[in-house]
Design brief:
Helix content is about 50%, strand content about 20%. The protein is an alpha+beta fold. It has three domains: about 300 residues, no CATH class; about 90 residues, Helix Hairpins, CATH 1.10.287; about 150 residues, Heat Shock Protein 90 (2-Layer Sandwich). The strands form four sheets. A six-stranded antiparallel beta sheet has the order 2-1-6-5-4-3. The protein has a five-stranded antiparallel beta sheet with strand order 8-7-11-10-9, sandwiched between helices. A hairpin with a 4-residue loop joins strand 1 and strand 2. The N terminus is likely disordered.
Length: about 575
């Protein structure tokens, strides 16, 4: 579909863009500058927090080793039969601690003679003879390594011993950090002239720790930030760890790759362009949404006007939008309601005009037809009774008499419909009407193998009505239900009361009433029966209206039809 510049929606979108684009240019530039600067400032802070987290992990490992060593020491001291010279004494403890991640469990005396160890090692620095925790430098399996551990002093049979528990700081210790691909953590051990790498989360070409940074950490500085570590490959923070001898034992490198930053990949100009384009697209989207919000009520009003012009006076529009649009929608709905009421009134007036014309025609028919019919009937009966006729001729005269009687009945029905008698009302229950009809129509119902199921949920509700007229109306509905079920079935009669009305509903199990016929079935002379007059349901409607009520029809294809007579509920003047 091609848009035209004259459409209200497109003009709203363009106007919104003209207002928003200049402001978006300025805000995009300021946002790009602020974001880039904020990123530079936050990288150092984030790396500092990460390095502190790494430091806490190592310190907590030493503290946990101190608690474990204390537990083992207490168990050894409490065992009076322990033999510290037998390795089997500590094998069970060693196996348990190895299973939870502790690599070294050792026991030694004041002369630093090792009485037991879970694996051979040689200390690079002297083992402490008092309780300490921190970084231990050792040689194990021909490699120089560092360990986070602790020493607990105990007394066994008057002899002072020291329990050493620790975990190697190697690749297995911090393997989970490898998940962050842009973050690299290295650990260097101070074994002499230079710092040697002992672990790295992402192995690559490891650059040595600059001597100046090593000097600063050795002098007691907690952390050092290097914005161009490894020749500019990383932004990094260096932190130092003291050994059990109080000297610098290890240095940790926590680095973030420079190319991992979004702003380094984009650049400030690209960032500005991206923010501007994103803001512009967002402005267009907001403009479209806002224009749709403004135009939607007008479209709804347009559709409503077209529907009313086509004759659908039930059309309503939602009263949403600004105050003016709400008032316009309310005015439209009120107009549609009044037009619908006028159409219903016009329809009712036309129906009454037709009934009036029908009444006049019925009077003429009654005057012009009934007298000749009487003469024909009388003459035929005289001839039939006095003349000696053959059997076939007598039978033909019988047909003439029957047809004359049928015409008289039809004329009488016309007169009763055109000029109905005023109802002689009395207080009665709707249940009594259906019970009377079911009793009178019992033989006919039995002949068609049809039963009547009555449900009364009206309580003590009554109406003011003419028993004979209501009986005739209900009988017409029951007869129609019988015709709708040629193979038998059940007629359901329900009496209900809701608020100020009482309803009697007759529901059959037939084929139902097609939707296109429901607006016509209560009109006089409308019928689908070959021998029907089309006055049965019209009489039902006339009786209901004469009692201040109405007759309605509800039907689903293949599930029968339900006809209801709804009348005002009678309340005595003494009732509250």
């Amino acid at each position: 579909m091609r848009f035209r510049m004259t459409t209200l929606r497109l003009r709203l979108v363009i106007g919104f863009m003209l207002v928003s684009v200049p402001a978006m240019l300025a805000s995009a530039y300021v946002a790009a500058w602020l974001l880039s600067s904020a990123f530079e400032d936050n990288v150092e802070q984030w790396l500092g927090e990460t390095s502190r987290f790494f430091r806490l992990e190592v310190e907590e490992a030493s503290q946990e080793a101190q608690r474990v060593a204390a537990v083992i020491g207490q168990r050894i001291e409490s065992n009076a039969d322990i033999d510290v010279r037998s390795s089997s004494t500590f094998d069970a403890e060693s196996a348990l601690l190895n299973s939870v991640g502790y690599d070294v469990i050792a026991v030694y005396d004041d002369q630093r003679t090792i009485r037991y160890t879970s694996q051979p090692f040689q200390p690079i620095t002297l083992l402490p003879t008092d309780e300490k925790q921190g970084i231990f430098k050792m040689t194990a399996n021909g490699q120089r390594r560092i360990m986070a551990g602790a020493v607990q002093t105990i007394s066994v049979k008057g002899q002072t011993l020291h329990v050493l528990v620790g975990s190697w700081l190697d690749e297995a210790y911090l393997g989970s950090i490898k998940v962050v691909t842009s973050l690299n953590v290295r650990l260097f051990a101070d074994f002499g002239p230079r710092l040697e790498p002992v672990l790295e989360t992402h192995p690559d070409s490891v650059s040595p720790v600059p001597q100046e940074i090593r000097r600063q950490l050795a002098s007691g500085q907690e952390a050092v930030f290097d914005p161009s570590a490894d020749g500019g490959t990383y932004r990094a923070v260096y932190i130092g760890f003291q050994g059990i001898d109080g000297e610098l034992a290890a240095v940790a490198f926590v680095g973030l790759r420079s190319e991992a930053g979004l702003f380094e990949q984009l650049g400030r100009e690209s960032l500005f362009l991206g923010i501007f384009l994103f803001g512009s697209l967002l402005s267009v989207a907001v403009g479209i949404v806002m224009s749709d919000i403004l135009v939607r009520p007008l479209r709804a009003l347009t559709r409503g006007v077209r529907a009313i012009a086509a004759g659908d006076y039930r059309q309503r529009v939602s009263e949403t939008g600004g105050r003016e649009l709400v008032q316009l929608a309310a005015g439209f709905n009120s107009m549609a309601e009044q037009l619908g009421a006028l159409r219903d009134l016009e329809t009712e007036l036309r129906r009454r005009d037709r009934l009036s014309v029908l009444g006049q025609a019925a009077m003429v028919i009654a005057h012009e037809v009934r007298n000749p019919l009487g003469i024909i009937k009388t003459s035929t009966e005289v001839v039939r009774n006095r003349a000696k006729l053959a059997g076939s001729e007598d039978k033909m005269l019988g047909y003439v008499i029957d047809e004359v009687r049928r015409i008289e009945t039809l004329v009488r029905d016309f007169l009763e419909f055109a000029h109905p008698k005023p109802p002689m009302t009395s207080e009665l229950r709707m249940r009594s009407i259906i019970d009377r009809v079911a009793a009178i129509a019992g033989p006919e119902l039995a002949r068609h193998k049809i039963s009547v199921a009555v449900t009364d949920e009206s309580g003590d509700a009554t109406v003011r009505g003419d028993p004979d007229q209501l009986h005739q109306a209900c009988l017409n509905l029951v007869l129609n239900a019988i015709d709708a079920m040629p193979n038998g079935g059940t007629i359901h009669a329900d009496v209900t009361a809701q608020g100020d009305t009482v309803s009697l509903t007759i529901r059959d199990e037939g084929a139902g009433v097609p939707a296109e016929m429901r607006d016509e079935i209560f009109n006089p002379f409308f019928t689908t029966k070959t021998k029907g007059t089309g006055l049965g349901l019209a009489k039902v409607q006339t009786v209901a209206e004469a009692h201040g009520g109405q007759a309605t029809c509800a039907s689903e294809p293949g599930r029968g039809a339900a006809f209801s007579i709804t009348l005002p509920r009678w309340r005595s003047k003494e009732a509250p």
